[in-house]
Design a protein that fits this description.
Length: 262
């Protein structure tokens, strides 16, 4: 029984180490544009039935309770929490924040489409709108050389005022995509997500139409990490780790006492 306690407590230490890694990653990305915090989810492991609940104690009676011993805990998943971050004004005409549901569609070098909430857009050498990593929007939008100003409407319409013209020229439309289960998206780094079997297929649409969030020009969505909440979670994880460590220490003392008596 004492040896069992050692292994059960060991799974508790592993679980709290995982939780601390998740909390550390959240805090590290507190200033990452469009970052969505993670949370660790845990399951209890299988139980060893010593005495089956509802078993016959006599011919006419049943046991109202049983005896089962748990074998510990395991990390079942780490999931993204896709709540809205704060919208921060930047004044940069190429910055866009999504206010509501949806993701910007990003064309990858291999032809696939990934998705992001990071709307800090830039212009490359050909005038195309790209991400901070140089990846192109999908569908692509090109700004003519010498454009005096760029306007991105709440519905994603991109227009530019060109020299010698009093009327802005429409350049294209920024489309956003939504998913039935955004939590099922696979985070791949660089503020990007990839479609998975759990997320469902992307549903492309116009920003501000129906359930799709509108675009705010000159703004960026900040991380949805709450520093105070993460610090409280860190204290909880630390105390849980200490208690599991204490359980190992106590089980070791009990084993030591038994061996001394032999």
């Amino acid at each position: 029984m004492t040896e069992r306690a050692l292994w059960v407590a060991k799974t508790g230490l592993d679980a709290q180490q995982t939780r601390m890694a998740v909390i550390a990653n959240n805090l590290a990305n507190v200033n990452t544009t469009g970052f969505k915090k993670d949370r660790a989810m845990f399951d209890d492991l299988m139980y060893q039935n010593i005495r089956q609940v509802g078993g016959q104690t006599t011919q006419n009676t049943q046991s109202p309770t049983g005896t089962s011993l748990g074998t510990g805990v395991r990390t079942v998943s780490t999931e993204k929490v896709h709540t809205q971050g704060n919208v921060q004004q930047t004044g940069n005409a190429l910055d866009v924040a999504i206010n509501g549901r949806g993701f910007l569609q990003i064309l990858m070098p291999n032809g696939d489409t990934n998705y992001t909430r990071d709307g800090s857009l830039k212009l490359d050498s050909t005038g195309q709108l790209v991400t901070s990593s140089g990846l192109t929007l999908n569908p692509p939008i090109t700004v003519p050389q010498g454009a005096l100003s760029i306007t991105i409407g709440s519905d994603g319409t991109v227009s530019a005022l060109l020299p010698g013209s009093a009327t802005p020229q429409q350049l294209g439309q920024i489309e956003t995509a939504d998913f039935i289960n955004p939590t099922g998206l696979e985070a791949v780094g660089d503020n990007l997500y990839r479609e998975s079997a759990s997320s469902g297929p992307p549903i492309a649409g116009t920003p501000g139409d129906g359930e799709f969030g509108s675009l705010n020009q000159g703004s960026l969505e900040t991380s949805n990490v709450n520093v105070v909440e993460e610090l409280v979670n860190m204290i909880e994880a630390q105390r849980a780790y200490e208690m599991n460590s204490k359980a190992i220490s106590t089980a070791d003392q009990m084993l030591s006492f038994v061996t001394q008596q032999l």
